[in-house]
Fold this protein.
Amino acid sequence: MLIGLIIAIAAAFLLLGSAAVGWIGLRKRSLRTSFGPEYETVAQEHDSRQDVDRELLRRRRVYDRLSLHPVSAADQEYYIASWGHLQGEFLDSPALALRSAGELVSQLLDARGYPGNESGERLALLSVKHADALGDYRRAQRITEHVRGTSAPVPTEEIRQALLSYHALFNELMAVPGALTAR
């Protein structure tokens, strides 16, 4: 009887242990899936996968406490018209169109309620729901800063690619329940 009880207790511990390991593995796969390429970006900044997971969970907790809201119908029209205008500027002044796109996306982030006091934290919070567009958005920001900081010409194709990256995030931010589809 005592041996049977010991075996039952040992089996229960083994079962609980394997369930815990399975849950941890599932959580890690879930983080990798939901954060996509951002998982690897964060992994480059941290010493261990545990630190990466901790950071991504922190981002998710902070994001869940944000008071994000859809853009009003009037503001949707403004943003869509503004995007159309800056696309028209591209032919005459690609650099100006690029700077305008960066500013417009920043305004849209403010309107949605993303905190803007620290760009690193804003990017971290964006990674929770917009991880797939975030790498290209960062690249677009770097190109925009390069265009601002140099008198040397930047290839138009590079500017065009950055503009497309801004547009991808713009579309994601506009695609909220009740929002118009960006044209």
